[in-house]
Amino acid sequence: MRKLRVAAVQLRCGIESGANRAHALPFIREAATAGARFIATPENTYRLDRNRERALAAAGPEKGDAELAAWARVAQELGVWLLLGSAAIATGNGKVYNRSFLYTPDGKVAARYDKINLFDVTLGGGETYRESETVEGGVRAVVAEGPMGAKIGLSICYDLRFAPLYTAYAKAGVEIITAPSAFTVPTGQAHWETLLRARAIETGAFIVAPAQGGKHEDGRATYGHSLIADPWGKAVAKLDHDEPGFIVADLDLDQVVEARAKIPAWAGGPEFAGP
Question: Per the domain annotation, does 185 fall within a domain?
Answer without folding.
Answer: yes
